[in-house]
């Protein structure tokens, strides 16, 4: 990436972020390369890409300027506007209507058709992107085991895509792939945390999504869950989040990394004795291990 010049502020932020993937992605974009090819060019997994972009957003180094609509307010569409848009059976909008009705499994009302028209006419999203948007919204609801989305929900998602410049097929495909993979992981973690008799609340799903975006493996999250249960007697989301955040700050995201890097300072044993309690990540001293072994031996003899 020759020819990339960084300001002192950019350099300071990148050196402090502790995320090599974010640094490489920033340099890649700074060199003028398109986001659409970043995944292949940098050989990132989708999870790496999501974590890197999130890190850059937190640093203020990832700008996603909102698209400016062609008009200050959404126009009020008439029945004649609809007829004009669908004048030819071969028109792009006519094909989009057919695709929407097929995806949603029903005939759209006149008002719903006007909403659909606004997505391409007002927001300026290409019809192929809207088609992918429809598929994504339907699949997301299916995975959550809820009924197909309303046109209002689809419109809300479309506005978010427009605001985040998800306005071409490449970017939209990457976004959909990323979100569906995250959802798959969320469902795996839901079962891992033994939440199988109900749906996740929005707050719970946000916790799981956040841990995934931090880059934790399922095994690392399970380890945090086990430590939480031992310390608190059950699943306490805030407590478990504090464990994972502390590991994330140390750049520990797998059980192997945690075993090597999550060690307390040398003075922790003294602090435990003086304060009379033990933290979730404290290790036992040689004396404490000997005491435990002695206690176990006495129990066996009794």
Explain how this protein is built.
- The protein is an all-alpha fold.
- It is built from 16 helices and no strands.
- The protein has helices spanning 8-16, 20-30, 38-41, 46-59, 79-85, 92-104, 110-121, 127-143, 151-163, 169-192, 202-214, 218-232, 237-249, 255-261, 268-275, 286-301.
- α2 (20-30) packs across α4 (46-59).
- The protein starts with 7 loop residues before the first helix and ends with a helix.
- 21% of the residues are buried.
Helix count, DSSP H or I runs of 4 or more residues: 16
> What Rg, in angstroms, do the CA atoms define?
26 Å
Classification by helices and strands: mainly alpha
Q: Choose one word for the global shape.
A: flat
For the termini, the CA-CA separation is: 70 Å
Q: Helical content, roughly?
A: 55-70%
Average pLDDT value? 82
Low-pLDDT residue intervals, each spanning 5 or more residues? 265-277, 287-292, 298-302
How many strands? 0
Query: How much strand?
Result: under 5%
Major sheet summary line: none
Order of helices and strands: HHHHHHHHHHHHHHHH
Provide a brief overview of the structure.
The chain has 302 residues and is mostly helical.
List the helices and strands and how they pair.
Blueprint: H1 8-16, H2 20-30, H3 38-41, H4 46-59, H5 79-85, H6 92-104, H7 110-121, H8 127-143, H9 151-163, H10 169-192, H11 202-214, H12 218-232, H13 237-249, H14 255-261, H15 268-275, H16 286-301
Helix pairs in contact: 2-4, 6-8, 7-9, 8-9, 8-10, 10-11, 11-13, 12-13
């Amino acid at each position: 990436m020759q020819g990339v010049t960084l300001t002192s502020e950019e350099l300071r932020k990148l050196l402090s972020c502790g995320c090599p993937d974010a640094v490489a992605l920033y340099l890649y974009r700074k060199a003028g390369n398109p986001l659409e090819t970043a995944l292949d060019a940098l050989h990132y997994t989708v999870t790496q890409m999501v974590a890197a972009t999130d890190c850059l957003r937190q640093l203020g180094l990832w700008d996603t300027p909102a698209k400016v609509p062609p008009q200050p307010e959404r126009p009020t569409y008439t029945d004649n506007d609809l007829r004009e848009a669908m004048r030819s059976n071969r028109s792009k909008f006519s094909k989009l209507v057919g695709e929407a009705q097929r995806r949603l499994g029903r005939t759209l009302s006149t008002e719903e058709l006007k909403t659909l028209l606004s997505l391409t006419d007002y927001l300026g999203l290409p019809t192929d992107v809207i088609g992918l948007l429809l598929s994504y919204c339907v699949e997301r609801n299916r995975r959550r085991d809820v009924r197909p989305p309303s046109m209002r929900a689809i419109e809300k998602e479309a506005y978010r895509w427009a605001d985040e410049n998800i306005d071409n097929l490449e970017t939209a495909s990457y976004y959909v792939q990323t979100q569906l993979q995250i959802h798959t992981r969320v469902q795996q973690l839901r079962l891992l945390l033994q939440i199988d008799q109900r749906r996740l609340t929005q707050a719970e799903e946000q916790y799981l999504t956040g841990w995934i975006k931090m880059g934790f493996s399922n095994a690392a999250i399970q380890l945090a869950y086990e430590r939480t249960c031992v310390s608190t007697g059950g699943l306490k989301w805030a407590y478990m989040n504090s464990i994972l955040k502390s590991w994330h700050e140390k750049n520990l995201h797998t059980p192997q990394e945690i075993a090597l890097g999550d060690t307390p300072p040398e003075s922790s044993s003294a602090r435990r004795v003086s304060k009379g309690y033990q933290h979730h990540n404290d290790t036992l001293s040689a004396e404490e291990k000997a005491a435990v072994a002695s206690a176990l031996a006495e129990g066996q003899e009794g």
